[in-house]
Amino acid sequence: MSDYDLIIRGGTIIDGSGASAYRADIAVREGLIAEIGQISGSAASVIDATGAIVTPGFVDIHTHYDGLATWTDRMNPSSHHGVTTVVMGNCGVGFAPVRPADHELLVELMEGVEDIPGTALHEGLPWAWETFPEYLDFLDQRQYDMDIAAQLPHAALRVYVMGQRGADREEATEADIAEMRRLTAEAMKAGALGFTSSRTLNHKSIKGDPTPSLTAAEAELVGIAQGVADAGTGVLEMISDFKGLDQEFQILMHMVDAAKAPMTISLAQGLNANGWKKILNKIDEANANGREVKGQVAPRAIGVLFGLTASNTPFSGCQTYRDISKLPLADKVRALSEPEFRQRLLAEYHDRPNTVNLNNFWALTEDWDYEPERSQSIGAMAAQQAKDPAELALDIMLQNNGEQLLYMPFANYTDGNLDCCRDMILAENTVMGLGDGGAHVGAICDASFITYLLTHWGRDRKRGDKIPLETLIKAQTSDTASAVRLHDRGLLKPGLRADINVIDFDNLRLALPSMVHDLPSGAGRLEQKTTGYLATIVNGTVTYRNGEATGELPGRLIRGAREATMQA
């Protein structure tokens, strides 16, 4: 018999601790890292990692695979970016607990908040559960290409306890709060990784109704947090508009104190170029006072993709475009190529009072790097060509048989560069997140944040300082794992889980996003693949080689926190 199940030989180890890279072999036995060094033993399988870097598997703590995980075994597009663990149920939305009468409401909320087609959810969701423990039991029967962890979403919890009153954002009674507290403790004890909520006006159902948790009172939030404390385990995740920063932040800190648990808070640069710094200062003060609070940040601008295959175009507000928006792509291209139709559409577009600013739109080209110059925007190019910006945008969208996409950043790009992202990545009390894998499937593909973090900041950036690769790997492995109390992964150390990536870093590349139609009912979603991931290993089993699935599905549901069991 072989000494080990797998040996990865000759790679450059970047172990996730932030320490300098070094060259060594890694031996794996029974799903754990058995030894690191110059290994002479035999193995059932060997990977030659000469010239490659070897890292821990990436841990993505902000995804929305809550529906996808009930009907498929592959968490795409995260699967193509070296991710070995995902945490879902963020932003207070999900599908449990739920009464049968409220299935439609939760679908409408997920469709609106996270841009997941309702047709796919209606056809794909089996609804084989009611309570959150039953939802976990359902997921526990399934196998995946990575580990998944679920969090209890506030919107679903509120509607489950309060019914229509909860959906209508009525104030919770003492009895309502007591029941939410009980159910929160029950969910945490059953294996929920944490509790999540949303207090942003940006989160609305497909009908335009605000998320049920938007105006939840402090008493409700603290009562739920006490349920986390009752269980003795769990983390908190929150997104807020921070209207009235001092008061809002105080409410969140009261939650942290009541839960006796860490919290992550979505953090990005908005129209106020320095507003995020005020929130980060609050986060820093909270940590100085003994709390564990992190700002979840992104490695690039948070933006939306537009095009004839996407959810929206710059012309989606025009009735002329809406008349053809449901047609097959070829028919849309044909209509938009007809001079009379084009002129009617452009005329309506210019007559509208609130057209989009095409100075903040770019065409995704083959050498796209998400930090474009203002001079490359559609508005600037149109001025250079003495052309109508709207007509140029239309011409660009018709390229590549109508599959050409446009990009519009709406956060982290107020200054026209990514310097703010660099500052956020390097801040003491931040953690990588916000990729939204599984969500906004017709508008973004930010599950690729992870590969971009490495390639742009570690190798390719042209418009400013880079970041050491060891720092970047740590940010997406041990830092993210620790933020959600998954201490059994995120580092390459003997005794920890053998979740590992072997990467040809010199040739690591992002493909352009493209639309695929593999959701239930044939609905589309944006996919963004890569080259350069030589192998991704989950629990000691190779799941992907050179970007292609091996067919192995070693991933499982994670129930609750995980402690490290490192060997001496």
Throw out a few tags for this protein.
single chain, 568 residues, alpha/beta, TIM Barrel, nine-stranded mixed β-sheet, 26 strands, globular
Walk me through this protein's architecture.
- With 568 residues, the protein is of the alpha/beta class.
- The protein has 2 domains: 59-221 and 234-300 and 418-483, Metal-dependent hydrolases (TIM Barrel, Alpha-Beta Barrel); 304-411, no CATH class.
- The strands form 6 sheets. Strands 1, 2, 3, 4, 5, 18, 23, 24 and 25 form a 9-stranded mixed β-sheet that branches. Strands 9-10-11-12-13-17 form a 6-stranded parallel β-sheet.
- A hairpin with a 2-residue loop joins strand 2 and strand 3.
- Helix 5 (154-162) crosses helix 7 and helix 18 (449-460) runs antiparallel to helix 19.
- The longest helix has 17 residues, at 174-190.
Do you know the CATH topology of the largest domain? TIM Barrel
Determine the strand fraction and express it as a percent band. 15-25%
Mean pLDDT, to the nearest integer, reads: 96
Helix content: 25-40%
Tell me the overall shape: globular
Distance between the termini: 25 Å
Specify the number of helices.
Answer: 20
* Rg: 24 Å
Largest sheet: 9 strands, mixed
What is the CATH top level name of the largest domain? Alpha Beta
Q: What structural class do you assign from the helix and strand content?
A: alpha/beta
Question: TL;DR?
Answer:
The protein has 568 residues and is an alpha/beta fold. Helices cover 33% and strands 20% of the residues.
Layout of helices and strands:
Elements: E1 4-13, E2 22-29, E3 32-37, E4 43-48, E5 53-56, E6 58-60, H1 68-71, E7 83-88, H2 103-114, H3 118-124, H4 132-140, E8 147-150, E9 152-153, H5 154-162, H6 164-167, H7 174-190, E10 194-199, H8 218-231, E11 235-240, H9 245-259, E12 263-266, H10 275-288, E13 293-297, E14 302-306, H11 319-322, H12 329-336, H13 339-351, E15 362-363, H14 378-385, H15 389-397, H16 399-402, E16 406-411, H17 419-426, E17 430-432, H18 449-460, H19 469-476, H20 478-483, E18 500-503, E19 509-510, E20 514-516, E21 525-527, E22 530-531, E23 533-538, E24 541-545, E25 548-549, E26 557-558
Parallel strand pairs: 1-4, 1-5, 6-7, 7-8, 8-26, 9-10, 10-11, 11-12, 12-13, 13-17
Antiparallel strand pairs: 1-2, 2-3, 5-18, 14-16, 15-16, 18-23, 19-22, 20-21, 23-24, 24-25
Helix pairs in contact: 5-7, 7-8, 8-9, 14-15, 18-19
